[in-house]
Amino acid sequence: MKPIAALRLPVAKNLGGFVRLLRRLQVPHRVTEEGPEQVLWVPTDDMAEQVRELHARYPDGDSAPMVAQPALPGPGRGISAWRQLRASPVTTVVLLLCLLVGAISLLGENLEPLHWLTFVDFHQEGDYAWFKPWIETLEAGQWWRLVTPMFIHFGILHLTMNGLWYWELGRRIEWRQGSLALAGLTLLYAGVSNLTQYLWSGPALFGGLSGVLYALLGHVWLFNWLAPSPLYRLPKGVLIMMLAWLGLCLLGAASVLGFGEIANGAHVGGLLVGCITGLLGGALARRKMR
Fold first, then answer.
1. Quick check: 188 and 112 in contact, CB under 8 A?
2. What would the CATH number be for the domain defined by 4-64?
3. Active site residue 55
4. 158 tagged catalytic
């Protein structure tokens, strides 16, 4: 494959910091000198476009607030937590909203404030919850309910696990495709997974980011299959583990093991829509690479 010239800069320009940044991101590259210029080469057009955008934002490299210190092996190690947050605004806002809702609802112990966020409105009478018809909810203009259940979590383990996975996968998508893309995908995934769960189980109290997480996983997996990128390179064991867990949940093993009721509809719906967007996004990215 013929290398692509991503940058042409004067020899006097110090590229040391920017090259170190590319190494942290595991971006394959080399630098050569051609007369009064130094040229930074990368393998593909798509990668060249990303490198140009990266250089435009962080020409000195070392000061870049990159995604960093991920729970899974990946790019951007060694950057401060504050810079990670600044580089991932959508990921950060979603997680802060989950924390806020968790604090207000006492992680599901206080149901009173949650009736504004559940997929359909409800009211309590003793130990029972009575749900309004979904169509009635939509006719009242409460369209936000399609996505807001993703902010509801029941228990510290539920919130912690979902939060860590969203932090890991959300940052990758936000850096690779941009904040607007992550925001749009998150809303789409939440709507599809929540609707699927409602159709799957009927009126019930459900919530959490897990449907969105399965969508993000499917998106990253198939996008990277068609248009490989260091940011989307996940260990094979992660995908196997997540799919195995989905299978166990569908078989009812998770409930038997004491994990409570699992939103299987949200998981399945999320994974399917994420695979679709991953195929579409990856195909477009692959076309640009040619």
1. no
2. 3.30.70.2080
3. no
4. no
